[in-house]
């Protein structure tokens, strides 16, 4: 059995479409935000990873969202580029169509709530009105593209008979992908499997469309519900890198892909994802957003392939399959290796970055990263791959408005700490000299004087990149302002400098977050 789709042509029965919504649903997470250049970098990397559909954003939400979707549609090739729209939004679908105009393969993804709870309290609409909006929304979307997806928001809590009516109307009016999300993460695997089985059996025309699963992780069942949806007939999986997303997040792309690959005997499905790039993708997102994954995170956590138990270590040494169901190399892990020293040149540094999976850097970014590498090599006995990653990730961030130029500190047991700071704000140089209760406090106060703001420090955390007393520090700073949370990260051999870099990273992200607005709910 096979399907024909306007964007993919004939799709083999064992092929699952990977729909990534990191740039849309993922970026809505509290504390997460990306600017235009960061979104473009992620979109190119997602396409390179082998993602079939990239949901680039919600064009009507803000000018920034519209521009990011437009630029991604214009520049990224290989993947379908998708924009989100409310089925009954006044300007949503037109905005999507305009933003996607230059996409190689555009998709409009429109949605409306269908559960009794949402229709009564959120939409304040009768079911018949919702059906009318489903019809008109999909008809309108087809005016801009042949690739139209429709979603039943809160679909898992929708009355089965009404859900069948909604899906039938969407198909009849031009939708060729039907998404049934577990919007609030309420469903169980058995329920999600049954929903897709029911729709495929009961809805006329169901055999002519792709069914899609979008599961949230509020009960920790996002991945399990997604795999059950595949068993029920879903052929598209909506997911995010590292599982980021609203509240407890979405089903994690890397976990789903490796579950399908590792347990092909159970699911019999394949994807187009190049799994050796999963770790690099995870780390790129963590660098951009400032959120590291937890150490025991499946697939990409630093403990995912670590074995401390003596019994486990003995088994691994004899045969890795005793305690490893996949190889570390299959998802991009390699052994921490020693790299160049202080006498290494720029060409060798560039080659090392290529080996680590980095795309070519612009000359300015490469020179800045190389200069920091030389400084690190002078102060650190041994430079590891992870040291290189930390400094390059730190340097490659796009600090659009605020950038650290220099920091001088004076501190000790018999004197109050002092910080002299020089930063660039929108291209203008600002200076500050401030004392504080310790070097970090003094440095943070200096940032506040050089660039006044109302954000409050909500979290300050320091970890080491590698082992040893000369290891680089990786600092995480969380800022809070008017209910908005952002995390920033910085790395440096000097702990206070890494803290300042993290603070400035968070401050830049907060400035980006201020510009984002959300469209009002339909009513």
From TrEMBL:
GO molecular function: 2-isopropylmalate synthase activity; acetyl-CoA C-acetyltransferase activity; manganese ion binding
Region of interest: Regulatory domain: 403-523
Annotated pathway: Amino-acid biosynthesis; L-leucine biosynthesis; L-leucine from 3-methyl-2-oxobutanoate: step 1/4
GO cellular component: cytoplasm
Classification via PROSITE patterns: AIPM_HOMOCIT_SYNTH_1, AIPM_HOMOCIT_SYNTH_2, PYR_CT
Subunit structure of this chain's protein: Homodimer.
Alphabetical list of Gene3D superfamilies matching this protein: 1.10.238.260, 3.30.160.270, Aldolase class I (3.20.20.70)
Chain residues that bind Mn(2+): 25, 214, 216, 250
Matches recorded under InterPro entries: 2-IPM_HCS-like, 2-isopropylmalate_synth_dimer, AIPM/Hcit_synth_CS, Aldolase_TIM, LeuA/HCS_post-cat, LeuA_allosteric_dom_sf, LeuA_bact_synth, PYR_CT
Domain Pyruvate carboxyltransferase: residue ranges: 16-279
BP GO annotations: L-leucine biosynthetic process
Keywords of this entry: Acyltransferase, Amino-acid biosynthesis, Branched-chain amino acid biosynthesis, Cytoplasm, Leucine biosynthesis, Manganese, Metal-binding, Transferase
Family: Belongs to the alpha-IPM synthase/homocitrate synthase family. LeuA type 1 subfamily.
Catalysis: reaction(s): 3-methyl-2-oxobutanoate + acetyl-CoA + H2O = (2S)-2-isopropylmalate + CoA + H(+)
Cofactor(s) of this protein: Mn(2+)
Enzyme class: transferase
EC number: 2.3.3.13
Protein's name according to its UniProt entry: 2-isopropylmalate synthase
Pfam families found in the cross-reference section: HCS_D2, HMGL-like, LeuA_dimer
Transmembrane segments: none
Function of the protein: Catalyzes the condensation of the acetyl group of acetyl-CoA with 3-methyl-2-oxobutanoate (2-ketoisovalerate) to form 3-carboxy-3-hydroxy-4-methylpentanoate (2-isopropylmalate).
